[in-house]
């Protein structure tokens, strides 16, 4: 049992009980990055290119089943499933029981190919 801890100590590990211990170990190795005032660190949602707007436009704030999204978008279900997964991984929608819901505000997206 103690072989693992002995090995760690032999490799140079040290006891850390809080953030102060880490700062002391790093010493002067910590340096702040200089950032000019003109540097953009993150873009606002309005500046982010919207992935698969045609599919996202058909997912609302209410639970929308995959087949309904596919029908509204006028695309085959397998293609829509791939796009929905990409949108979910990007944080635009969430998978919930019964389908998907939009979780980011994307009010600039128009509904496209909506069949009435």
UniProtKB/TrEMBL annotation:
<protein>
    <recommendedName>
        <fullName>DprA winged helix domain-containing protein</fullName>
    </recommendedName>
</protein>
<dbReference type="InterPro" id="IPR003488">
    <property type="entry name" value="DprA"/>
</dbReference>
<dbReference type="InterPro" id="IPR036388">
    <property type="entry name" value="WH-like_DNA-bd_sf"/>
</dbReference>
<feature type="domain" description="DprA winged helix">
    <location>
        <begin position="43"/>
        <end position="99"/>
    </location>
</feature>
<dbReference type="InterPro" id="IPR041614">
    <property type="entry name" value="DprA_WH"/>
</dbReference>
<dbReference type="Pfam" id="PF17782">
    <property type="entry name" value="WHD_DprA"/>
</dbReference>
<dbReference type="GO" id="GO:0009294">
    <property type="term" value="P:DNA-mediated transformation"/>
</dbReference>
């Amino acid at each position: 049992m103690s072989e693992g801890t002995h090995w760690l100590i032999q490799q140079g590990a040290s006891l850390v009980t809080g953030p102060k211990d880490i700062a002391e170990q790093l010493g002067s190795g910590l340096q702040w990055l200089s950032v000019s005032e003109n540097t953009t660190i993150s873009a606002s949602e309005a500046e982010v290119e919207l992935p698969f707007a045609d599919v996202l436009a058909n997912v609302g704030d209410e639970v929308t089943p995959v087949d309904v999204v596919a029908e509204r978008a006028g695309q085959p279900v397998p293609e829509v499933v791939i796009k929905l997964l990409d949108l979910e991984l990007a944080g635009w929608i969430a998978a919930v029981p019964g389908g998907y819901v939009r979780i980011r505000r994307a009010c600039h997206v128009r509904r496209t190919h909506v069949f009435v």
